[in-house]
Write a structure and sequence with these properties.
The structure holds 2 protein chains of 2 kinds. Chain A has helices at about 1-30, 40-50, 50-85, 90-100, 105-120, 125-135, 140-165, 170-175, 180-195, 195-210, 215-220, 225-230, 235-270; strands spanning about 30-35, 35-40. Chain A is mainly α. Chain A has one domain: Orthogonal Bundle (MetI-like fold), CATH 1.10.3720.10. In chain B, strands 1-2 form a two-stranded antiparallel sheet. The longest helix of chain B is centred in the first third of the chain and has 39 residues, at about 15-50. The chains are: A mainly alpha, B mainly alpha.
Chain lengths: ~270, ~300
């Protein structure tokens, strides 16, 4: 037994070193600049850095829009699957899992091709204006569309796990026989019971959008992750400082999620 | 409100059923319509582009497998094989290192340790992309803290290489493995071990003949999941190595941004199609394994 304990602490210790050293070293890297000694310049420069505020704001706006759209699409659908449309369940399950089979880089290759149809084939049709509008750099709707697709598998699983834990049919029927309309039954009876799953899904989507790089970069937009990348060439300390901070923020979000949703739901949403 | 309630007595059964079913269909339609447009269109465009060739002289396009053949030759083939090798090596290491870590956590009697490690794994498994790359550049890069203090550069260390990428990828692959394998390890009953001991089995025999056969589907499933995750990763590699390690994701990005010959866009789509095939294969292997391992956890 003693040998087992020793072995266990060895494994945990090695893992601790591997996972903590890069974080500690990153902090050291940002404050201990060669030739300048210990300085906090990287962190004080941050707020005044060109593009920091605008890219962070863009990422947050994209995240909020994505969360709103993905929940509006999936919540009614998953609730309906539990009520009357059970036959559609396999279809929805497959549709929501398909994005897992297409890696983001392959997905964005498809999006680039579709967006090229705009100038190539549709320039004389009203659709062309739509193509221009969704690529507005101030708020690229096309990114929201892409992020909703990327978030679908996780959101669907989180909601499905949440709905499995409650008796939707009884809740809705009780609300309906008390005179509630369909929307009222959904909003005031089902959704409050789904609070954990909704928060879980929102946090996962938020983390996904804040860290997303592939789609945004290849479509030529500059939300937060792309900005960190673009600033790294000129100021390595600054980019590492932002990385450390964005890590901490993401971790706090996900830890909050773990606290709210409980461990079982966090693991169920992955898998 | 009042109009719908008291009619229950007079409504026919068919009417009631219709009233109940209508919202069901209506609520699912937006989701399906959205995925058809936002996911279906790009996917079809990719398929179409991967199989069509434009004649430079006439501008007419025709269907052929030329792009796919191109995507499996020369630099593209090297990149595809490089991606597969990197994913296979890092997934195998991730699975091998994740198993003892998960075992150490599961057998630990400290509840706080278990919860802590599992929560941290959930966080770290989601942690990829640009910040991860920069954290490692600051640690083990050319000007990194450890590289400087330990003089690693003179010993031939280079983060921007195959093994450098493996070390970085393990940072999110090991936690993913811990999350995947923990439920299976928790499913190993104490009674099985006791039964083996009563029959005179040693610890090694117990692992070889009882525990590992039960865990094999989960281990393989975990490996496949890790492989898929590493195979699809782009941001970390792009932010770290540029193009010094040939990877299919980097090739697709280069071809899309027009960094190579003009007219290679369709080869990028063919490469994407190759990736989808590999990812589909991964899922086709993973899902049955997951179902098989679920049998022991019930």
């Amino acid at each position: 037994m003693a040998r087992l304990t020793l072995w266990r602490w060895g494994a945990l210790g090695l893992a601790g070193v591997y996972f903590l050293v890069p974080l500690a070293a990153s902090v050291v890297f940002t404050v201990d600049v060669p030739g300048q000694g210990v300085t906090f310049d990287a962190y004080t420069q941050l707020l005044s850095a060109d593009g920091f505020g605008s890219s962070l704001l863009l990422s947050l706006e994209l995240a909020l829009a994505t969360i709103a759209v993905v929940l509006l699409l999936t919540v009614p659908a998953t609730v309906a699957l539990r009520l009357g449309a059970a036959r559609l369940r396999p279809v929805v399950e497959v549709v929501c899992s398909l994005p897992l089979v297409v890696p983001p880089i392959a997905f964005v290759a498809g999006i680039v091709t579709v967006l090229k149809w705009g100038p190539d084939h549709l320039s004389r049709t009203p659709l062309f204006q739509t193509f221009v509008a969704i690529q507005n750099p101030d708020f690229p709707v096309v990114l929201v569309l892409a992020y909703v697709v990327l978030a679908l598998p996780f959101v669907y699983r989180a909601l499905d796990a949440g709905l499995a834990a409650i008796d939707v049919r009884t809740l809705v029927e009780a609300a309906r026989s008390c005179g509630a309309s369909w929307p009222q039954a959904l909003v005031r009876a089902v959704l409050p019971n789904l609070r954990g799953a909704l928060l879980n899904a929102s946090f996962l989507t938020l983390a996904l959008v804040l860290g997303e790089f592939t789609v945004a970069r290849l479509l030529g937009f500059q939300p937060f992750a792309v900005w960190i990348y673009s600033v790294s060439g000129a100021n390595a300390q600054l980019s590492v400082a932002v990385s450390v901070l964005s890590l901490l923020v993401t971790w706090l979000l996900l830890l909050a999620l773990a606290g709210v949703g409980g461990r079982s739901r966090t693991t169920a949403s992955r898998g | 409100m009042t109009a719908t309630l008291p009619r229950a007595g007079t409504a026919t059964a068919a009417e009631v059923r219709r009233r109940r079913r209508a919202p069901g269909w209506l609520a699912v339609v937006p989701l399906l319509a959205f995925t058809a447009i936002a996911f279906g269109l790009p996917a079809l465009a990719m398929l179409n582009g991967a199989f069509s060739v434009k004649d430079p002289a006439t501008g007419a396009s025709s269907y052929s497998t030329a792009n796919l053949t191109d995507s499996l030759q020369g630099a593209y083939l090297t990149a595809l094989l490089g991606s597969i090798k990197l994913s296979a090596v890092s997934a195998a290491l991730g699975a091998l290192l994740g198993l003892p870590l998960a075992h150490a956590v599961v057998t630990s009697r400290s509840r706080a340790l278990r919860e802590g490690v599992l929560t941290a794994s959930g966080v770290l498994a989601n942690f990829g992309g640009v910040p991860l790359a920069f954290a490692f550049v600051a640690t083990l890069g050319n000007a990194g803290v450890l590289t400087q203090h330990l003089g690693l550069k003179d010993k031939g260390w280079d983060l921007y290489s195959f093994w450098g990428l493996v070390i970085v990828y393990l940072y999110f692959l090991i936690p993913l493995m811990v999350l995947t394998i923990t439920p299976a390890l928790e499913g190993l009953r104490v009674q099985w071990r006791e039964a083996a001991q009563n029959n005179g089995a040693t610890g090694v025999q117990y692992w070889l003949h009882v525990a590992l056969p039960v865990l094999t589907p989960t281990l393989l499933g975990g490996f496949v999941l890790l492989f898929g995750s590493a195979f699809a990763a782009y941001a970390t590699a792009a932010a770290m190595v540029g193009s010094s390690v040939p990877l299919i994701t980097l090739q697709i990005a280069d071809a899309l941004s027009g960094n190579v010959l003009v007219g290679q866009e369709n080869v990028a789509l063919a490469l994407s199609f190759d990736m989808v095939l590999v990812a589909a294969l991964v899922m086709a292997v993973y899902l049955p394994l997951q179902r098989r391992s679920a049998r022991w956890l019930a």
